[in-house]
Amino acid sequence: MHSRLPIAVPPAHHETAGSYVQRLATLHGLPLPELWEQVSHPRRPGSTSRLVALDRLAAVTGHPASRLARAVIDLRRPEPDWLAYRHTPQPGCPRCTARHRGGIRLQLLAHHHYVCTRHQLWIGPPDPLFHRPPHLADLPEIVVAQRAHLRLLHRHGPAATYDAVLTGFLICAHRWDAGPTGDTDVWHSWTRRTDLLIPPGTEGDTFSASRLFAATYPEAVKIAAPIASLHWRRLAGGNPAGQRRFAAEIAHRLGHPDYHPKVSQDPIAHWIDQDCWRPPSAPTHTYRGSRYDRARAPKADAGAHDRHDRSARWFSWKRTGGKTMLFHRTLAPVVIRDWSPHLELFVGAVEATASSGWATPDVELLTPTTPSTYLPQIADYIRRDPAPSDYLRTATTPLPWDQPENRPTRLSRPLSRSERDRQRRSKARRPQPQTAPAYKKWP
């Protein structure tokens, strides 16, 4: 028999079971382990991990089981398409969930959910430090980009849209650090938006990687439109004429009319060379396979705070956020794809996303600017023959998720140098097992 709690607080939309039980325990002043054991059962006989039981939660809260199953995403039956949702819970729009008392409401949001269009608040990718979402009253183009993102989802499906938007962020991040190429370059728009989202001199209080994604979000969605389209992917994977048409379309969306793909330091050429003729990349992890049965959400450790402080200092010096975005875990699925070569360090994988492979030799041409001065230039990229794949010829819209059973084993994300050093220090601090002293034998 399960006693009913006196405060009948409802769950938020797509709230996780752990977040809901945590709020119930906070409101009633109960220990979380005690309430968690009351509303859950062992995952399997003899297992220490527990899953929330729908009937027990309904008996404790007084809410109908059907209503709880619609709101708490862990309890939905049949289970949702976990690939379409982020693998990390995060706070959603605070104004939409203001009536749900008891603390932070952690929700499992879909990959396409970046902006609350009703309240004009940026939600963005998961932020482990849970910063307050910025208001977008002075940046209406970001709200417009969210509506365009939803239209892409309706037209091309979740798989192609997820891959295309992350690829758009990847291209924008590389070009942000490269600097402007003219007065019409979107680099100037990114600078203007970051000055509003992270005013100069306030980086210690307002900086977050999520706000950097907000600054480039409109252009990432614009680039995602041709990347998600099978028509444009076939042009990029076809003959040189189709490649030039695709490059011209991307250049128009980036405000760079004189753009030509280069064999190195160019993420667009890398996508044309390596990725356009292959299926969209799926998420590396899903929520169902990682934190499904935990009562508490993972908290930011000391390493997360250190990385945030270093990124804030770097941004205060450079005022460009491309490097921070490239090393953010949100872009990991398009930095390390199923067909990416194995590299020891993550920085090598990031650098590889801006270089092409076998199409043209990676050489530097010497272009004379004056009779005695030569300026080195990187050679233009071109693939003489169509891409060696039948995938684009047989693919249809909407593109399905590339299921794990159809994919090769994806290599794990390589560690950065700081992560390797921190792992080495933690092993050194780990207590060694005590062994019995060796007794000296008497002669």
Low-confidence stretches: 358-370, 433-443
- The tally of strands reads 8
SS content category:
mainly alpha
Strand order of the largest sheet: 1-2
Overall pLDDT, averaged? 85
Give the helix level as a range of percent: 40-55%
Shape: globular
Compute the separation of the termini in Å: 71 Å
> What is the ordering of alpha helices and beta strands?
HHEEHHEEEEHHHHHHHHHHHEEHH
Give the count of helical stretches: 17
| Number of domains as seen in the coordinates | 2
Strand content: 5-15%
Strand count, sense and closure of the main sheet? 2 strands, antiparallel
Taking all Cα atoms into account, the compactness measure Rg is 25 Å
List keywords for this structure.
disordered C terminus, two-stranded antiparallel sheet, 17 helices, 443 residues, 2 domains, mainly alpha
Helices and strands, with pairings:
Layout: H1 17-28, H2 32-39, E1 40-42, E2 50-52, H3 54-61, H4 65-71, E3 90-91, E4 106-107, E5 115-116, E6 121-122, H5 140-178, H6 187-197, H7 203-206, H8 209-228, H9 230-236, H10 240-254, H11 267-275, H12 302-318, H13 322-326, H14 332-335, H15 346-352, E7 364-370, E8 373-378, H16 391-394, H17 417-429
Antiparallel strand pairs: 1-2, 3-4, 5-6, 7-8
Would you mind describing this structure in some detail?
With 443 residues, this protein is mainly alpha-helical. It folds into 2 domains: 17-110, no CATH class; 140-417, no CATH class. The chain contains 17 helices and 8 strands. The protein has helices at residues 17-28, 32-39, 54-61, 65-71, 140-178, 187-197, 203-206, 209-228, 230-236, 240-254, 267-275, 302-318, 322-326, 332-335, 346-352, 391-394, 417-429, and strands at residues 40-42, 50-52, 90-91, 106-107, 115-116, 121-122, 364-370, 373-378. The strands form 4 sheets. A two-stranded antiparallel sheet has the order 1-2. Helix 6 (187-197) packs antiparallel against helix 8 and helix 9 crosses helix 10 (240-254). The longest helix is centred in the middle third of the chain and has 39 residues, at 140-178. The chain starts with 16 loop residues before the first helix and ends in a 14-residue tail after the last helix. Residues 358-370 and 433-443 have low confidence and may be disordered.
